[in-house]
Amino acid sequence: MSHGQDERTHQAILQGATLGVLGSGQLGRMFAIAARRMGYRVHTLSPESDSPTGQVADQEITASYEDLDAVSEFAKRVSVVTFEFENVPSATAEVAARFAPVRPAGQVLHVSQHRLREKSYLAEHGFPVTPFRAVRSAEELQVAIRELGCPAVLKTAGWGYDGKGQAKIHSASEALSAWERLGTNETILEGFVDFRLEVSVIGVRGVDGQFAHFGLLENSHSNHILDVTVAPARVSARVAAEAEAIARGVLESLNVVGVLCVEMFLTHDDRLLINELAPRPHNSGHLTFDANVTSQFEQQVRAICGLPLGSTELLRPAAMANLLGDIWANGEPRWAEALRLPEVKLHLYGKSSARAGRKMGHLTAMANSADEAERIVREARRRLMG
Ligand code: AMP
Prior knowledge:
Rossmann fold, about 25% strand, globular
């Protein structure tokens, strides 16, 4: 590392500076809102235009992540580069790093954008993960199924999210069709975890190693997509503390500067197994925008700018419900009906076409208990559809 870069690393980036975000979805939008509130300018680069982030950024650059000239130009004009989308090629992060600090570093992306690298890294560093095997051929799949047993889940090693690129295998006889369906020879077989709950911890780490987390979040999924998050998770204090310690360990091990979410399964006998890492703010942390002293997005701003982290205290129990394009099926959702519940906050991401399964926005409700917050947010979402 050059002297100049070293200095860059330790100086706080202050208001008036421009922050660069790769990716332009709702995570970048909420990051940009937090950044602008603190007096920063925001540039975003992605292949999209009129994007959720672009609509609130100072500048939206529409270019492919592989267009390294565009990435260089983008990085030259900002004080720091971060991500809201982790499936950016390694070369993109490397090129950006020639001109500005990249936080979290490209190495964190490299590990977390590939399921096999991620699980291998975590296992080698002593973190609890779902049982897995690398599978490169139909023959290796048969061996892996014998070792891990059924049911199991075959996943593509790269480019997977929200259950895409996955096939559940109930018996060895289904192996070949699952292998052919995925259509790639870089896959990972995981034992199917009969979990009690899915949970997550969003960790944040500053340039100086300061660590903060938002406590344990409880997640329920529908069709492999996050549906509802409840904070705090309804588990014992011991389980929550253990999950928080795992998350801290992961952020420290990877030397993360920024935000990283650790998604975990909680088994019926209270064991925690890491399912996945996301090196950016996470859908399960959207409720922090309304319910915590400092949101995950403001923490991302503070961390990448070398500023002290804020308090992550949960002000009130809260719940978040995702709004997918499906709720437009019968025309414009009845927004006013949901907002008639005064504890409910509406977030929409400015996406123009409401496709089924597309994340269009979310609702957050706050209440005196986690159960009550969940009840209210589900009721609000029901009201949208009449
Ligand atoms: P992923 O894209 O890997 O996060 O998977 C999406 C969802 O599929 C998870 O949130 C789980 O609900 C389910 N899933 C994935 N892997 C497993 C597994 N090994 N065992 C049980 N459920 C799984």
